[in-house]
Design goal:
There is one protein chain. This protein is an alpha/beta fold. Strand 4 and strand 5 form a beta hairpin. Helix 1 runs parallel beside helix 7.
Amino acid sequence: MKIIVIGATHAGTFATKQILTEHPDYDVTVYERNDNLSFLSCGIALWVGDHVSDPNKMFYSSPGELTKLGATMKMRHDVLSVDPDKKVIRVKDLVSGELFQDHYDKLVMTTGSAPVIPPIKGVDNSKVKLCKDWNDAKILKETTPDAKSAVIVGAGYIGAELAEQLAVAGKKVTLIDGLPHVLAKNFDLEIGSRVEKDYEDHGVKLAMNEMVQSFTGNDQVTVTTSKNSYTADFAVLCAGFRPATDLLKGKVKMLKNGAIVIDEYMRSSDPDILAAGDSAVVHYNPTGKVDYIPLATNAIRQGILIGHNIEKPTMKYMGTQASSAVALFGKTLASSGLTESGAKARGVTVSTVTLEENYRPEFMLSTTPILMRLVWDPKSRVVLGGAFYSSYDCAQSANVISLAIQQKMTIDELSMVDMFFQPNFDNPLNYVNELAMAAIHKSDANSK
């Protein structure tokens, strides 16, 4: 069988590996625009902040590795068009300029995403940088040492982490976002307000609820918003991502944003075209609906599933809870599933509870509080989300909540999950159990 894979970051790399592991006799050709693959862009801010031992280790695979598995690697090749009726693609060799066609039996669409670049005046200013791929990473790494100030546009995970790393390095940082709070799509205000204080305590200027209107300047860049203007040595645009799926526009079913709609076996509306990663939707378990959530974890799992299902439907997609975590100013922030604000945006009715408790007994020489949130369905009592914030490394708690959502556990069941007790690590009643018990108490009180 002839397989063509378009794009090889996370989903494409893992799809190729799994296809050739299960079907070593398949003819697999991979087309990739760049000269590299498998770059972990989530490590860009850490590299900029000098927390990476070797940037080359931010690549977990290579064209050579996939070649050894049996793939035909076409690096620096741009796919210009796809004809699903004839099962033919048109390609340009970006080095030689040669144009040619190739055919497929099955097409794997793993083209990923592209940065959202709003039509803002001056957005092409040389002082405005991006934070997406290896080339962006190298530019940021070269830019930051001599810079004294920066404006970060976008207070999602990427912008928030980059702003933190630059602030810790002693730069004057301004963080701008059109939403009311930092990480507004990831955490509710109870945790978000703590995070904002951390930024302010470290000298970061927060400009929330401000829309960028222009970038101007030569030696420095001035970012003008709907409320103010901020000047710095450079700016970084971190306004999110959009699916890079123009090749299949009008040819397969998509969401309005261009994300390819896939079934539980990674098949698009054209059964001979499979898709995964940032170019495709996910099944979001907290709502039971498709959603667009570009995360490397989703891309990797979906890529593996393409390998399992390339010949015939074999293994179903379990869906995702969009679990994530980030370290900011010595604090751990972790979450899984819905926030209260995220539920409201999706039209889902939820109940919530907030609890702050020490993670281990007071008789220890030290202990640390964890601020926790739990989100659940008020009718079924099924867990729909949770979030944690602490100077204690509570990141794995998000995985506990993820499993609870995956298994459709109720708050009652979560409260009684068997978790060990050892004074070095937790209280006799683990803090996740205690959070669920607080939810039960609130739910029962509200039902009276």
